[in-house]
Fold this sequence. Notes:
By secondary structure, this protein is α/β, with parallel strands linked by helices. The protein has a single domain, classed as Rossmann fold, CATH 3.40.50.150. Helix content is 32%, strand content 16%. The protein contains 7 helices and 7 strands; from the N terminus they run E-E-H-E-H-E-H-H-E-E-E-H-H-H.
Amino acid sequence: MDKIKVLNLYAGIGGNRKLWKDVDVTAVEINPEIAKIYQDFFPQDKVIVADAHKYLLENYDEFDFIWSSPPCQSHSRIRNIAGVGRGQNKPIYLDMNLYQEIIFLNQVFHTKGTKFKGKWVVENVKGYYPPLIKPQEIGRHWFWANFYITPLKLESGKIDKRISDMESRKGFSLNGIKLNQRKDQILRNCVEPELGLHIFKCAFKIKQKTLL
Length: 212
């Protein structure tokens, strides 16, 4: 049986991908330093250092499953309330790549004649604003997908303060790795592995529902 071909966009160090089995993964990450760590954790995957937003547009029809996690900073409630609200951060425009990808994937899935017949999910943190397109929700995440995601209660609802606690819970050790970025931020950007596995199972075991 052929392996499921997966496109993992904005891959980070691979939190969502950690527990996937029997998959052929192409991971796209724009930061070479982070991409190198991903490759070390998942040497069997094809890792591409590139703009994930552009790569999706040009290669979407080559895969059975697409996972996209566009940058969340401009949507984050924490940044908006704790940062902008208290004067610690400057206000910024929403990064609309998130909604561009949701609308694009929904379009190519439902348009007759398209080559893409697969499953897709776009993930982000819950925003500080009412979502422009209604998502499905699990924990602190919003999900848009062309399949139904069953509820999941995550034990890891708290935000760890210590790097060692995050490493233990998410199953990634950055010990001894020299980085130009904060290790705690890299680990917080990881989707919980158990959540990544749950979404993957929902995509291939549960009948699809339309998004819009």
